[in-house]
Task: structure prediction
Amino acid sequence: MYITGGNFVSFLRNNKYIIIFCTVTIVILSIVIFNSRLAHTSKNKKVMILYSNDEHGSLDNFAKIASLKEKYENDDRYDDVILVSSGDAFSGNPVVDQYIINNKDLRGKPIIDLMNKAGYQLSVLGNHEFDYGQKRLNENIEFANFPLLLANIKLDEDKAILKQPPPYKIIETKQGVKLAFVGIVQINNDGYPSTLVSNLEGLDFLSPTKTVQNYLYLKDKNDVLILLSHNGHSWNLNLARNLKNIDVIIGGHSHTVVQKAAQVEDTLVTQAGSNLDYLGKIILTFDRNNNLIDSMGELIDLDEIKFKKDEIVDIINSYQLDLKDVLNRELNHLNEPIIGVNNIGALMTDALRNSLKIEEMGYEIDIALQNVGGIRADKIYPGAITVGDVYEIEPFGNNVIIYKMTAKQIRNMLAISYIIGNSVDLIPSGLKYEIIVDYKGKLKKIVLKDLDNNEIDNNKLYTVVLNQYVASSYKFTAENEGENIQLKVSDCIINYLENRISSNELKKIYTKNDLNRIDLKITKGGTGQKVAKTKVDISTINKAHASVGAANLMADALSFVLDVDIGAYPSSQLAPNIVYPKNSPLYQKSLDLIYSSFAYHNNVTMVNITGKNLEKMLLKQAKYYKEGPIMTHLSSSARYTVEIKEDKIKDIKIYLNNERLKANQKYSFAINSYVWQFYAEAADYFDITVSQKTEKEILLEYLKEIKIIDSSILEKRVEIIEKNETK
Amino acid sequence: MPALFDKKVLFMKAKVNNQAIKIFKRAQIKDLLRRYSYQKYKEVKRGSAIIKDSNNNRVYMDGEVSNNQRYYIVNI
Result:
């Protein structure tokens, strides 16, 4: 159908509303399309800002970041690509935090070096940038090829060592867009950022909000104002709600993963998690007059990036190689090992109680407590004690938390920790304590004593230091909620070993085999079904230096119940310093007080082994463990001698029914399955089987049979023969 | 130096799953979580749950607690 002239007029008249609607729609669409095209025409400029925050010593992903930056720089859609950090590059990795090479303090250098190489153009000083002290911070700032900004800081030039950091930096892109960056750091309500306050002498930290207000004028002189705000994400969102003129806030500190940057009023607010899991990417679009017309921000998951800049990979690898030197730095020297969690725990707590850093902050610590579970090594070997040893003992990076507590609150804390774990847990410094329990291990009383064995003053308020883990996970009350002074437990131990204690003192205090600040005393009490009665003390005291009744009893039980020639029980599995009193009934739970291994429900491994190989096994174990010459206790018909020459264990000879084991004859032998893996390394054996019953079940069966424990467990089954040469 | 045990600077408050928790200042999220529930802390540590803030952003355990912030444990 064709529309003629008359028809056309009529058509217009009849359809005028449709036509008006279509015309308006076309006009609106044209405007939208035009504007949209305007925003994307070549006349517009796109600036990309790549950002990270809270790197905390993570080195690995810098090669990916460098490669991404290079990729975007070669992309001609972008006028410029700017790489920035929102602070806290330091603290979290020993290769960065302990980078002391050839006695030269270079802490922090590896990460600044990698930031230089990756092409960072700006950063803000986060709270952890102050962790190594002001002198070292100056050196790191000098080493950086990029400025480290901080606007909310004022220096007292007579006291401060830090040189005044620049508050802001203007970056002009290739096509003339001017971006003003301002740096601010969080402060707590005590006026300090979260770092060791003793590192902040002469530094006055100003209100971040007021400081930002003072720099809003930069927006008038530049095209955008960008805040590198080492403040948590919620703080940054609030700031965006309350202050105009800030175009972008790149945050840090709260380790928040903001996948898509939040648009709050006219401000884009973002943060990229921590530890370089992500790199943030902001794209700002400007019109021909440099007006910001569009902005967006998102995160790039660096796990998904496969390309790395080779040159930076090489540098990262070289720092990882340096880790060996860093961890091998000698702090002190030992001629004998420090063995057991009691002794290592004593060293750790003494380090906290005597920390120079804590002292410098004006605290006088009365008592330090360390949880057994937080001591991750049970032995420090003779020779150099290194940074690596300290990280092995305390690998968690726990901070020190300081409390004020009454004697009653300390007692309650120790009581609850004993009851929850059903074992002795918190190792003290500046204090000794007795845990008094009944026959079944039920807590009756805790007695706190000072170092001279007097009961402590119940009216005094004590300053107590705990590690962060204990502070946040144990049930206790105190007079305050605790002070996190931002000092690491590992740093206290390093400092104690390096600067506060001589090698001789170290040996004298911590290698003693009777170092024990906690006494578990078993007294009358307990109801229920008795499993036996003991006529003699069942003791574990001096367990690695003499035959002890507790170990002999268990070895006898294995030999009897499993019908083996020789039953054995290792010293290392006995609870330390226990005396189960004579003329007392025994309950099932009583056994848990004596045998630490019962908590792990170990079975027993049985093998056939030649006499020669069994002697070899016992010798290797005694030499390896070094707690004392007697690391294995044997059942009643067996005896052995340990020959020691010039303080070294030389030989072990085992006798069965008074006859030396025959070198090539096979004997049946049984021992705890957990320790068997270590014994098994020393020599060959045959016919291995594992008991169905646990050690505890075997002992209970034996006790049911014998009913009364008599003096046979007090036999001396090991003889130590000293063969020192005399002139 | 800050005054020792100054009452003004004693602690932080935050909520985990709507439960108010008091904790020492400068605590990390992991401290807050352990104070809230050790079981939940272990779940997050194992990776079977994550922590989110009130804006539905994930936060890592080593981040510092923001005073008066609300956190939620989300199973994944």
In short: Residues 47 and 343 of chain A are 59 Å apart (CA to CA). The longest strand of chain A covers residues 292-301. The two ends of chain A are 133 Å apart (CA to CA). Confidence is low (pLDDT under 50) at residues 1-5, 36-41 of chain A.
